[in-house]
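Q: What structure does this chain adopt?
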Amino acid sequence: MDSSLSWRESTVSAVISGTGRHTDLLLGGYAGVNASWRFSEQWSAVAGAQYQTLGNYIHTFGTQKVELNLSESIFLMVGLGYNF
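A:
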């Protein structure tokens, strides 16, 4: 994870701003499945799904806390092919 943040807060009596940058390694796993079909000599199709989990990324930049939930991601894929 490569994150960067900048913020600016305004109140009646003060303006607070800041920036930050953080790099971290997130470990996780994934599982996927694909299926393909050939309709004829020229046409084919493919479909698949992948489940990925990387957990939660939490970091504090000064007074600002950032949290990103990457614990349940699902990716779907479809494709159509033509051979000539």
